[in-house]
Design brief:
The chain is an alpha+beta fold. It has seven helices and 13 strands.
């Protein structure tokens, strides 16, 4: 858990996400911050593809995501949220999960996802600013099964075979996002999982370019390898194949506020984006 010497710069953080509301540890504040965060700070793994280390100390995260106006993945996004919400007086527990997007149940993925359990007036809520295309734009109850509405897709917690699954409804179908137990993820486990996820050749983040940002009216923007998509639920509003490196940089800047020098190339084994 955060210590007193790890206090975030709240004013800089709130300026970054465009939040000017209350700072009390209430459910309304929690939802407002969660929504503002994922519509302002993109999910992205670009430093990994550039061969740069991912430092998840608070000072490094603030330099990158807040002052540098970059994005990041779960260990950066949710670590920042952990410090901010703790500073505001929320009771926050970092939790671990296994990402299951597009994975069969018989497959066991590594436990390399970080998300947050936040207690408000004795009720546990899940907060997650770092799960890419399905980052939570409003929190959901951690202790209830059945469909729950959010500012974007309907979600639910499903208990099955002794396991908990966080699922999203896309059209008439429910799909797994991740599997979890409610077990806390202490700092040492976060360090190890972040190191593996950002450096192992087996990690999808070394092979796949992924960028995501929540938008207004239930819309989302995403880049996956060489394809840009704007969607609302299951409805694709715009789809564009990226055919040149300069085009990728232009889309990153225009749609996600991510600026890189001309000529930047994002590489990795098995890369499907322009090189």
């Amino acid at each position: 858990m955060p210590t007193p010497d790890q206090a975030p710069d709240l004013d800089a953080y709130f300026a970054r996400i465009g939040y000017t509301g209350p700072r009390d540890p209430s459910l309304a504040t929690l939802n407002a911050i969660a929504g503002a965060h994922v519509t302002a700070i993109p999910f992205e793994n670009l430093d990994i593809l550039l061969g740069r280390p991912v430092d998840i100390e608070l000072a490094a995260i603030e330099r990158k995501l807040v002052h540098g106006k970059r994005g990041g993945y779960c260990f950066e996004q949710n670590t920042l949220m952990l410090h901010v919400l703790t500073k505001l007086g929320f009771r926050v527990m970092p939790l671990s999960a296994r990402i299951r997007l597009q994975q069969p149940r018989e497959f066991t993925p590594p436990r390399t996802h970080l998300f947050l359990r936040v207690e408000v007036d004795g009720i546990p809520w899940l907060v997650d600013a770092g799960v890419g295309a399905f980052s939570l734009t409003s929190c959901i109850r951690a202790d209830l099964e059945g469909e729950q509405s959010t500012a974007h897709e309907p979600l639910r917690i499903l208990r099955e075979d002794g396991r908990l699954f966080h699922q999203v409804r896309l059209g008439d179908e429910w799909s797994d996002i991740y599997e979890f137990t409610g077990e806390a993820m202490p700092a040492v486990d976060r360090e190890l999982a972040n190191w593996w996820t950002s450096t192992s050749p087996q990690s999808k983040f070394k092979r796949t370019l992924g960028v995501g940002l929540a938008g207004p009216a239930g819309t989302r923007l995403a880049i996956r390898d060489n394809e840009f998509i704007r969607r609302q639920g299951t409805t694709v509003l715009e789809r564009r194949v990226i055919t040149a490196p300069a085009e990728l940089l232009e889309i990153l800047a225009r749609h996600f506020g991510l600026h890189f020098p001309a000529g930047t190339r994002f590489g990795g084994p098995g890369a499907a984006w322009p090189n």
